[in-house]
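Lab notebook, design round three. We kept the backbone fixed and only want residue identities now. Task for the bench partner: fill in a sequence for the structure below.
Input structure tokens:
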């Protein structure tokens, strides 16, 4: 609900202009609190020990987070993370369209390096899209599906990636 609310507000403010929404890609260890107090708080809410929270944070820490378990790899390992985000996007867009407003979300899959990764994530997006259309009684929700090219390998395979993506964004700082 929080993600949907934020996306809906952004889409509404843009009044029909395309809005590119980059799916989550931070390193997982950033979600684990660093202070002992916050670790204890999280542990209590999960019904586990603070030591388990601390150890999990250490396990998730990566020496090279840019190439680690993030972006598209996060969505492949945990497809429910991708599903939650695209469901929020499509539901927000559907609600706005039903209210007579225009919107065009663009779903961007980050840190891809191979067309198979993109196909995997697109399949999740299309399944959720169909579910939202059915539940909302709609025929279509204007949207685009693309990726951010941040890895040199993806540049070399861009012709294959273009078979699945409707747009590219280039992370030139990477």
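Proposed sequence:
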């Amino acid at each position: 609900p929080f993600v949907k609310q934020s996306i809906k507000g952004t889409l509404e403010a843009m009044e029909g202009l395309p809005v590119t929404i980059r799916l989550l890609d931070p390193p997982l260890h950033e979600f684990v609190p660093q202070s002992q107090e916050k670790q204890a708080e999280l542990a209590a809410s999960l019904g586990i020990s603070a030591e388990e929270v601390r150890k999990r944070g250490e396990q998730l820490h990566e020496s090279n987070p840019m190439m680690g378990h993030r972006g598209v790899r996060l969505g492949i390992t945990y497809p429910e993370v991708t599903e939650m985000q695209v469901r929020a996007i499509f539901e927000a867009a559907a609600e706005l369209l039903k209210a007579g407003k225009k919107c065009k979300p663009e779903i961007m899959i980050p840190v891809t390096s191979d067309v198979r990764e993109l196909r995997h994530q697109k399949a999740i997006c299309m399944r959720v899209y169909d579910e939202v259309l059915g539940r909302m009684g709609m025929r279509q929700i204007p949207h685009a599906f693309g990726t951010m090219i941040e890895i040199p390998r993806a540049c070399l395979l861009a012709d294959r990636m273009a078979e699945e993506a409707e747009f590219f964004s280039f992370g030139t700082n990477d």
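Keep this in mind before ordering anything: The mean pLDDT is 91.
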